[in-house]
């Protein structure tokens, strides 16, 4: 147990683990940077080349760029358990 978990258990509250969904969108790699220009390849969304957990999973099947060149979009999980009366 880490220090954060020890404190939450001492207070009598259970720590809630939130999950976030991450999508990798259009490729932003500048292919013309070496000649001082700007040109992107038009890849609209990251598609893994291999199975999760392998090195190929970090390469895009469409443009062969690393996943870090693709725009990262994080969707936060909504806690819809609380209700409001109005």
Automatic annotation (TrEMBL):
Q: Which GO terms describe its biological process?
A: regulation of developmental process
Top-level taxon: Eukaryota
Q: Name one GO cellular component term.
A: nucleus
Protein's UniProt keywords contain Zinc-finger: yes
Domain annotation ZF-HD dimerization-type: ranges: 24-73
**Where, if anywhere, are coiled coils annotated?**
none
Q: Where in the cell is it found?
A: Cytoplasm
| Protein keywords | Cytoplasm, Metal-binding, Zinc, Zinc-finger
Q: Know the name of this protein?
A: Mini zinc finger protein 1
Q: Which organism is it from?
A: Dichanthelium oligosanthes
């Amino acid at each position: 147990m880490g220090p954060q978990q020890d404190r939450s258990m001492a207070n009598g509250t259970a720590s809630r683990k939130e999950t976030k969904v991450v999508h990798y969108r259009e490729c932003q790699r500048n292919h013309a940077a070496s000649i001082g220009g700007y040109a992107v390849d038009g890849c609209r969304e990251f598609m893994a080349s291999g199975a999760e957990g392998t090195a190929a999973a970090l390469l895009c099947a469409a443009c062969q760029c690393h996943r870090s060149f693709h725009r990262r979009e994080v969707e936060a999980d909504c806690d819809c358990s609380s209700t409001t009366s109005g």
